[in-house]
Amino acid sequence: MVILLYLVVLVLAISALCAIFTKDLLVSVVALGVNSLIVSALFFLMHAPDVAITEAAIGAGLSTAIYVFAIRHTKRQEEK
Amino acid sequence: MKKTEFLTGSFIALTLVVLLGVFFFQALFQPSYEGKVMPIDNVNLKDRVSLHYVLKNVNDASKYLATNGMRYFNNRSSVPSKTITFGKTKNLEEGSANEVTSIVVNYRGFDTLGEVTVLFISIIGLTMLIGGVKEKKLRMPSVIVRTGSKFLFPFILLFGVYIFIHGHLTPGGGFPGGAVIASGFLLLLLGLENFKFNTTVSKVIESLAGVTFVGIGLVGLFMKNSFLANFIPTGTIGFLYSAGMVALIYIVVGIKVGAELSTGVAELKEGNKND
Amino acid sequence: MISSIFFYSTAFVLFLIGLFGVLTRKNIIKILVSLSITETAVNLFLVTVGYIKNGKAPILTNTIGSIGMNNLKFVDPLPQALVLTAIVIGLGTTALSLVIAIKLYKNYGTLNITKMGGKR
Fold it and tell me: Lower CB count within 10 Å: N or C terminus of chain B?
């Protein structure tokens, strides 16, 4: 159980690093959505179900959508 | 030249971040507060202000503070309180079974009004700035997405309404309910290629909801001499018709947040052709 | 039960990763993504302040039964109430800043902050 928890936090850190270091902005935004989803699971483990529902609906759903729309209006690849 | 500049900047930033991290973790593992060790892992709710929110005796606590002065801070637990039983206890100061809801809407209702206003202002700014950005055509969605989004939309809407009507009994409330409704509209925007979201109607609904919020507060001002005071009887804890105006305000907040967020998403997707 | 030191460490690590991104990235949308990570970390920290070992979710239900001065079972609900609204406000400010980023791209033709300001 505890090992599973450490694995989840490892995925959290990897998704945050991936969101920062990748060149493709779309990959970065999807990694941000994964990050929000895992954080919402952590909120649930901390006995905060209200916050977990809000984070799952907003951080992983709507926030990703508005980032994707903004990338559609601009450019997908990060230039040198 | 460019590369070395970038590497130097990254090195300086890394040093800063590592120093800050050392500071944080040192503060976490050697906690000290006026010579005493700060209780990180065995916090007691009796040492916190939230004790009165949980036991719903805030009025008694403020009376106790006014008569006993600073002595209150040493014995918070001597404020009179009664045991609260689910489904039995009646006529409490605040009758919501969900403590988070009772803090957000009732004890700190003015704060919530301010935060809803911040959201309103940010969406106004978005609408104002997006003028002149043209829409880019999406690829035509497949049959499964078109049919599925038409089929799923009423259920998502119903789920959002359920979340904010039961905000005082189950986890949820106006903010997540509004977000779920906005995600339903997002599904329609993505799934149907000739769906037009009418932003004028949504803005009118949103303004009406905001006016209703302030109106409920003003009714409390005239009936109980305090803005956003609870003027409806609180009922038995755990029933749907309980908690007074909490359910009313959360319905209004849910409609307002849903309209605001769907306006924002629709304008970001479609651009604004009026400029 | 999980120790709260675990959650504190997670929040600190996430905050530091986000801070590093804000300091080093050149692309505007990347900076906004890093700010979002930082904001999530601060929310995690605030909820952890209210976490109590062996506590239950602060909702009175049929299974919990009753609470009183001598059987308090809940975690602290006050930070949760603050974070609940902070997440929604975060979405509003993110949307506004993304629109400003789109307008900057339309004006300068680039998202790189070091190349902005020269041509118009």
Answer: N
